[in-house]
Design a protein that fits this description.
The protein has 88 residues and is an alpha+beta fold. The chain has one domain. Helices cover 40% and strands 16% of the residues. A hairpin with an 8-residue loop joins strand 2 and strand 3. Helix 1 crosses helix 3. The chain is globular. This is DUF5659 domain-containing protein.
Length: 88
């Protein structure tokens, strides 16, 4: 199966909340591929790989991973709403 390079997929909820709070566009929540685990699908951008690496390995005070707490809270709330709805 060939994957579409225009999209980034992840099952890591908090990574997805981080990306969403950084402005990434959520295009789908795939609950069909594996009914036990949702896959969040984002439109990919050139800086996504850098941000994913920073999320995993940057020092905790790195400016690349700092996010406004209100944006992160809204991102978590939005992802959970999309997770439990059949919106997509």
């Amino acid at each position: 199966m060939k994957t579409d390079d225009r999209y980034f997929r992840s099952t890591n909820f908090y990574l997805c909340a981080f990306l969403f709070s950084k402005g990434f566009e959520l295009v789908n929540v795939d609950k069909l591929t594996d009914p036990r685990r949702a896959i969040f699908v984002f439109r990919d951008t050139p800086d996504r790989e850098f941000l994913v690496h920073q999320y995993s390995f940057a020092k905790e005070d790195s400016p690349d991973i700092l996010v406004d707490v209100r944006k992160l809270t809204l991102a978590i709330k939005t992802l959970k709403e999309n997770l439990y709805q059949n919106k997509f």
